[in-house]
Amino acid sequence: MNTSRKHLLSLALITALSPLASTTAFAQLYLEIAKAPDQAPKIAIVPFNNDNGLSPIVETDLNRSGRFTSSSKNLPANAAINQIQASDWQAAGIPYVVTGQIKQTATGFEVHYQLYDVQKQQYILNELLNVPASRIRQAGHMVSDAIYQALTGIPGDFSGRIAYVLRNPATPAERYTLQIADTDGEQPKTVLSSRDPILSPAWTPDAKKIAYVSFETKRPAIYLQDLSTGTREVLTSFKGLNGAPSFSPDGQSMLFTASMNGNPEIYQMDLSTRQVKRMTNDSAIDTEARYTPDGKSFIFTSDRGGSAQIYRYTFADGSVKRLTFKGSFNARGTLSADGKKIALVHRPSGSSYKVAIQDINTGITNILTPTSLDESPSFSPNGQMVVYATREGSRGLLSIMSTDGRFRMNLPSEQGEVREPAWAPK
Amino acid sequence: MKSIKYLALPFLSVALVMTGCASRKPAATTTTGTNPSTVNTSGLSEDAALNAQNLAGASSKGVTEANKAALAKRVVHFDYDSSDLSTEDYQTLQAHAQFLMANANSKVALTGHTDERGTREYNMALGERRAKAVQSYLITNGVNPQQLEAVSYGKEAPVNAGHDESAWKENRRVEINYEAVPPLLK
After folding, report:
1. Number of Cβ within a 10 Å radius of residue A38
2. A40-152 is classed CATH 3.40.50.10070
3. ipTM of this complex
4. Candidates B35, B41, B125; nearest CB to A257
5. Which of B16, B124, B135 would you mutate first to test chain A, the one with the most A CBs within 10 A?
6. Percent residues over pLDDT 70 in chain A
7. pTM of the full structure
8. CB pair distance less than 8 Å for B132 and A263
């Protein structure tokens, strides 16, 4: 393991409020709030032969899924690849066991791992992964992804990445940095640094580029940066606002906010011709547009009804429909990849701004988070987790919460305030 | 309280912009990616020559005993999620309108700001709405639109880094930033 790796974000696991507490604001129960965490199936992770720090990564990943409890310590028995005694684990009430071994190869590591079903006495997974030495953490997350999928039927999101903005007052020349890290906050890489604000990072659907708003000229402009080369271009620098970029699922166009014709409206840019088309037209604020996953419509924030609420614009007929009705502020909606849920910032009352999840078919909204002053919710690709920015005391940090409300993980930084998270698409 | 300084710092130079002065402006450098590339952007002018040029047009014209106190105020505040101006704000802005009409070379950046509550991009739009409310009031009172630019910084540049009502109240504001502060107003 590369010991010089920087731990920028420290990781803290927090047991979330009980499901009951997280739903008190609305009477309706959100469907996913069903199981108490202590009823979650146990997974024993037997430290791998020649472990290289991999099994603790798997253990932590599975624990923060909210679906399992996982442990590598105080195990009732030992086990190795192809050497598991079902009776050892049955007696301890542990239904799943993970074993593995890691071999050094010419270029890196070969990771061999197995997932064993104690009840059925059979191997559910028996796989080999070859990774460069520098990607050993990635291998751990890929093992977690495979185990999660084998047991839930849903692809795991542990091997993904999250972009975010770090504001560090101690380094005035680079006060703002746009960074990309693993979903556990490890291996952060800075892709942009500036003395002026950076906000609204948005991934292209292929996750190869990222757009953002930068104030480096003291006025806002939207940039598009290639992540492999670091090269970038200005997409919009119209007079007035340039903000809230969002890419269409096919990657061909971008929605953004501009006020070039007076007040904030949603515009769409064809990325090949750079032609810009105005999509909304009224005297209110229209901003924070996000395409729906099918690309046939977009949702956006507007105060056309007197307070900020979420609306949906349908491309086929240009119709606009209001989607949120509860609370005096609902903004920055974003859809899960299956298009069934909207995560948004919701003000139930007072000065409390919380991430809530709305079922798009039933319209039922549930407050997800125990924190206030929440911002910028972003779904993981499988829709099982939401990352968002919030405050705890004077700290600005990221939280990742399972959408069933059972687990929350904090990602603070000792170097400043973390904000504007955006989960990379797969 | 240190953090307040840092928060305000990047925007001290904000006032000084108007389009059409690009050739004078120092280049700002931003590094990107693992292979850093230098980006030349037109930054805000901190150019002494430019300041001097604008000062030349700014004199005692437009400053009277009656409006001097109001001219010293260069910030107006707003209620939550509102861009409505108060009677007191009218007085402040009328004084600035008089000054700007008397000093046609003076230029002003109206920077709109919000408190930290709510989402960043909504606040960016709200800050612009506030800046434009001030802008249109000044234009209505006779100021040449060419002397004014409205720029929103949303919640990105609070003057008070606190997280309570009193901090939020201070932060919901439009600043009237003269490109060069006329000596008589100092």
Report:
1. 7
2. yes
3. 0.88
4. B125
5. B124
6. 91
7. 0.83
8. yes
